[in-house]
Design brief:
Helices cover about 30% and strands about 15% of the residues. It has a single domain (about 5-220), classed as Vaccinia Virus protein VP39 (Rossmann fold). The relative contact order is 0.14. It is of the alpha/beta class.
Length: about 220
Amino acid sequence: MHGLQTEWRISGLDKNFWEAGKGSLDMSKMKVLVACEESQVVCDAFRRRGHEAYSCDVLPASGNHIEWHIQSDVMPLLEKNWDLIVAFPPCCHLCVSGARYFKAKREDGRQQQAIDFFMAFTRAKCDRIAIENSVGIMSTIYRKPDQIIQPYQFGHTESKKTCLWLKGLPLLTPTNVLDTPASGRWSNQTPSGQNKLAPSPERARLRAKTYAGIASAMSKTWG
């Protein structure tokens, strides 16, 4: 981070955006922060509905609108004036699928850093916050999620149980619930129920990408 002036140059944000004393007065056009998102799937969904949405991640945007992307540490942005924050903190040190590594991650501090990062979003100065994460230890350390959703409830043929912690927001309503395949497995599952995506440097980024059907439901329900 080199100060907010650098952020304005990177993202094209106008200085008045930050200096405004409040968020948007017109709730039909909200100021939305999509935190920890480089794919811009959720950001784009809110933009399509007319909102002033920005993605933020330490990685460059892989979406098509770098002018909507703030490549920086998200923490200073949580002090700014947003009408809605949708956060996707990394779950690799928190989710139960990696429980066999928890001992080492507790000992070297990685898990506590992930917990602290997650909890920072719960303390953000915003009246409407959604935090997304895989099933994991935050259900115990923080609280039970308000909702658990699946991609197949929103028109996708995959399974990925996802938790939502909500503040000032309604639950998502499933938009297109698919029947369980005759095989009993969804398209992204192996016979043992594991994810088919092979290990690779891109695996975490690809698995973190929000399904378009869920992103659309978020923008319609919360926007």
